[in-house]
Amino acid sequence: MQLNIVTLLLSKQEKLLVRFLQQPKDFHFDEMTKLLGYYSFTAVKKGKTSGSRVKFVNAEGLVILLHKPHPGGIMKMYQLKQIKEILGL
Predict the structure, then answer these.
(1) Over its length of 89 residues, how does the chain's per-residue pLDDT go in tens digits?
(2) d(Cα 81, Cα 71) in Å, to the nearest integer?
(3) How far apart are CA 64 and CA 43, in angstroms?
(4) Phi, psi at residue 12, to the nearest 5°?
(5) For a 10 Å CB count at each end of the chain, is N or C smaller?
(6) Are 52 and 63 in contact (CB under 8 A)?
(7) pLDDT of the residue at 48
(8) What CA–CA distance (Å, rounded) separates 17 from 24?
(9) Closest Cα partner for 86 from 45, 35, 46?
(10) Secondary structure of 46-57 in the HEC alphabet?
């Protein structure tokens, strides 16, 4: 595997952002949770009745609603595009 010197210098956060911006077909929900955390979003626990719906909120009150994909956890392309737009990336 060939390593790119720029890739070696990037932090984990930056690597995840670069991966997200490439809109991969195998972007996992756990990766999205981490990415949103870097943008100060936190998951709001709605209790047992929320099922696979997850609400993320930041300090400004911006809300992102996601359906946690199952069984594999791989996010849909439309979700990635929506979040990219919401984050202004």
Answers:
(1) 455 555 566 788 888 999 999 999 999 999 999 999 999 999 887 766 566 788 999 999 999 998 888 888 899 999 999 999 999 98
(2) 21
(3) 9
(4) -60, -40
(5) N
(6) no
(7) 64
(8) 11
(9) 35
(10) CCHHHCCEEEEE
